[in-house]
Design goal:
Oligomer: heterodimer
Low-confidence stretches of chain A: none
Helix content of chain B: 40-55%
Strand content of chain A: 15-25%
Structural class of chain B: alpha+beta
Number of domains of chain B: 2
Order of helices and strands of chain B: HHEHEEHEEHEEEHEHEHHHHEEHH
Number of strands of chain B: 12
Largest sheet of chain A: 11 strands, mixed
Chain lengths: 385, 388
């Protein structure tokens, strides 16, 4: 008990210095937490992916489409429960800054495959009945203020022209990780318009989504689908939804890696600051340590005191930093709008923050401890800080 | 009278561990700051140098990128016959009708698939882009299933090296050469014969047209006429601006993320400098009192401590910049969100960045040292002399 009292008294001897150090640690732990959360946000798409869904796309790349006739052929394959299809629309809402994903989906089947999008039945009915209808996510509603019945106009970048939609329903996510920043509309609307304006591009599908009878057969069914269309004009590549999403992450991997490295750099920076604080503290107290030694206290006693002080300061700063991470992350996620569809602090981040705080405290005390423990009593008594 | 500079130097030397830790913290912050600036500069250089000023890119209106654009043969002929288009030595128009598609290739090191731009060019395409030079092998023969790969593409993708083959569009394509495009975006691309690629991908249309102007000043005339022509739905941009726009999102992302981080991190380093300087002042109270009693002015005492802080900042800045300069050996590759394709660029150090980095380090030193130096200058002489 008296150890604790001594440690606290010591920590508070230089209030300004301790205060500044704590402030530095708060900033570092907060920055670390936010960066980890940004990295996590990158992976949420693949984390949320279902194991019982496959995605089939053109094997050349996503910008090439597949004929609509594949739908019937895929459905016949053994192990396939249901098939739906979608096209990436890539439209612009008012200005380029307002980015959110838009998909033209086969409305009658698509939402059976995605039970995580929760829509009130009457809204779903309205959506199904209106070919110009659109289904928007909760996050889009929060960001752009869409209401049911609103007219929304998108300027097509891949499919030329201005496209008019009427919001017929709003979907919520079943879990935290469900992306609710998407905009769905009828694939038939897209197709009928393309038949009129660009017949060559009609009846083409961007991706097929396959629902599996059982997750164990994913590899087998994927191979069967690709085999079916081998040597055709549009060869396919089928992978699990998770692999499909991870493909996007791996394309921007360099950025994720950079953010990860930087998140550790901030810990190193604060480690240097904290170590500096402890080095100064110990230097100033050399005479005291020599006195304690002269009174018969061993090096272990000194080490416990120094480690304790360092850990106390670091963990206090870390605790504050962790507490601040939640409100700040919440605000940051909101201000980023739909750029990060899913943005929240996962428990692992908090564990890592705690670990970072403890490591910073321990490492900072290491060198000063060695110095204090090895000081010769006579030299220590002579020293003037 | 001034306090000798060597006094400041010796003070730093007397507390080596503290000096090293403080300057080390600052060096890390400066490293992050410099790296971000170098990355942004590298990206800017890559994309600005991708174009030349007297070339014009014509794409379908509101398509934004070459990949999403489509221009049919009739439209292409109309654009080609505009009076502003230059004539080549052979009497033909200086126009490259190109078809651009994305192809999934696997990386050599990680085997992960990435989108790579495959550009079908007319033989004219090379003369319109004088920065592109074949460095190994030879150019593809028109009318054959041969392709050439950019320097970065050849290095990073499986099957894109010279003598290797790639399979796409139901055909095997032989890589017969690699080209160097002077660190521009073309280095990440693969080029082939436009007509062959259109055939392989069953696309009867071009993606974009690259046009050379006979007079760079007549760009606006051409742009106005093309964009108001009822038969065309196109937009025209100078090639330099077109490629700079392509990377706007990525460049902004790097800049904002990088600068925000640098500022947050610098708070940590400034706090470190403050702690050091406060301690430096506190442990030398009697010394400061003596100096003041000897007749040194408040100003001189303040200057001596400010020097100390600035010196810390400069040492940190120097070390950080030294470490960051090694980043020039690295090339980073990532997907450009706008063009949806892989782009490789390297860290580039310029004199401007060196200056900015030192200014940043200096500011950290000044901000960290100001309050402690004030305290030192304001110490009452008698109390200071009494302090043990």
């Amino acid at each position: 008990m008296y150890y604790l009292k001594l440690i606290f008294r010591n920590a508070l001897r230089h209030k300004l210095r301790t205060g500044l150090t704590v402030l530095g640690i708060v900033v570092a732990i907060l920055a670390f937490g936010l960066l980890r959360t940004v990295v996590d946000a990158w992976y949420h798409g693949s984390d949320a992916a279902s194991k019982t869904r496959l995605v089939t796309r053109n094997s050349i790349s996503l910008v090439f489409s597949m004929p609509l006739t594949y739908s019937a052929k895929i459905r016949q394959l053994d192990g396939v429960k249901a098939v739906s299809h979608a096209n990436w629309f890539g439209g612009v809402y008012v200005t380029e800054k307002n980015f959110f994903p838009q998909f033209a989906v086969q409305a009658s089947t698509y939402f059976d495959l995605y039970p995580e999008y929760i829509v009130p039945p009457e809204q779903m009915r309205d959506f199904q009945r209106d070919r110009k209808g659109a289904l928007v996510g909760r996050k889009l509603v929060d960001t752009y203020g869409f209401k049911i019945g609103d007219q929304v106009s998108l300027r097509g970048t891949i499919f030329p022209g201005n496209w008019e939609f009427v919001v017929r329903g709003i979907y919520d996510g079943a879990g935290d990780k469900t992306d609710t920043s998407q905009f769905f509309f009828h694939w038939d609307y897209l197709n009928e318009t393309m038949k009129k304006t660009a017949p060559r591009r009609a009846n083409s599908v961007g991706v097929y989504i396959i629902s599996l009878a059982s997750a164990d057969r994913a590899a087998e069914v994927a191979a069967a689908v690709d085999h079916e269309f081998k040597n055709s004009l549009a060869e396919t590549l089928t992978e699990t939804e998770q692999a499909f999403q991870l493909g996007f992450v791996s394309m921007t991997e360099a950025i994720v890696v950079a953010i990860k490295i930087v998140s550790f750099l901030v810990i190193f920076i604060i480690m240097a600051v904290m170590a500096n604080t402890m080095a100064m503290t110990v230097r100033e107290r050399m005479a005291e340590y020599a006195t304690l030694k002269a009174l018969g206290f061993g090096p272990r006693h000194l080490a416990v005191m120094i480690f304790g002080e360092s850990l106390a300061i670091a963990s206090f700063g870390a605790a504050l930093g962790i507490a601040l991470t939640f409100p700040v992350a919440d605000k940051f996620g909101k201000s980023m709008g739909t750029l990060f569809p899913v943005f929240f602090v996962v428990p692992e981040t908090v564990y890592m923050q705690i670990a970072a705080g403890v490591i910073v405290g321990a490492v900072a005390a290491l060198l000063p401890c060695v110095r204090a423990a090895h000081i010769r009593i006579v030299d220590g008594l002579r020293s003037v800080g | 009278m001034k306090i000798p500079f060597s006094y400041t130097l010796r003070n730093l030397w007397a507390r080596k561990l503290t000096t090293v830790l403080t300057a080390g913290g600052m060096a890390l912050v400066v490293f992050v700051f410099a790296t971000v600036l170098m990355l942004e500069e590298g990206l800017r250089k890559t994309l600005v140098e991708t174009g030349s000023y007297d070339n014009v890119v014509v794409i379908r209106r509101s398509a934004q990128t070459e990949v999403q654009s489509a221009i049919d043969r009739v439209q292409a002929a109309l654009i080609e016959s505009q009076p502003e288009v230059a004539f080549g030595a052979d009497g033909e128009r200086m126009v490259s009708k190109e078809t651009i598609v994305l192809v999934n290739l696997n990386k050599r090191d990680s085997d992960k698939p990435t989108n790579v731009m495959v550009r079908g060019v007319a033989p004219r395409g090379l003369t319109l882009r004088p920065q592109v030079k074949i460095t190994a092998g030879r150019m593809f023969r028109p009318g054959s299933s041969e392709i050439v790969a950019g320097r970065n593409a050849a290095e990073r993708f499986k099957g894109a090296g010279i003598g290797e083959t790639l399979w796409f569009g139901q055909r095997e394509w032989l890589v017969v050469g690699t080209f160097d495009a002077g660190k521009s975006g073309f280095d990440s691309e693969i080029w082939g014969d436009a007509d062959q690629l259109m055939q392989a991908f069953r696309r009867p249309i071009y993606s974009a047209l690259l046009v050379k102007l006979n007079d760079p000043a007549r760009f606006n005339e051409l742009k106005t006429r093309l964009e108001s022509d009822q038969r065309l739905t196109v937009e025209a941009k100078r090639e330099t601006i077109f490629y700079a726009d392509q990377s706007e999102v990525l460049a902004n992302f790097i800049r904002y993320l990088g600068l925000t981080l640098s500022i947050i991190f610098s708070v940590g380093a400034i706090i470190g400098a403050m702690i050091t300087m406060y301690a430096s002042v506190a442990s030398r109270t009697a010394e400061i009192g003596t100096l003041r009693a000897l007749g040194f002015r408040q100003r001189s005492v303040m200057a001596a401590f400010m020097f100390e802080a600035i010196l810390l900042g400069l040492v940190g800045g120097g070390v950080g910049l030294f470490l960051a300069s090694f980043m020039q050996f690295f090339t980073i590759s990532t997907m450009n969100w706008q063009s949806f394709s892989e782009l490789a660029f390297s860290f580039t150090l310029t004199p401007g960045i060196t200056l900015k980095t030192f200014a940043f380090a200096l500011i950290m030193g000044v901000v960290g040292g100001f309050l402690p130096a004030m305290r030192a200058a304001k110490l009452p002489i008698i109390d200071a002399l009494r302090a043990a």
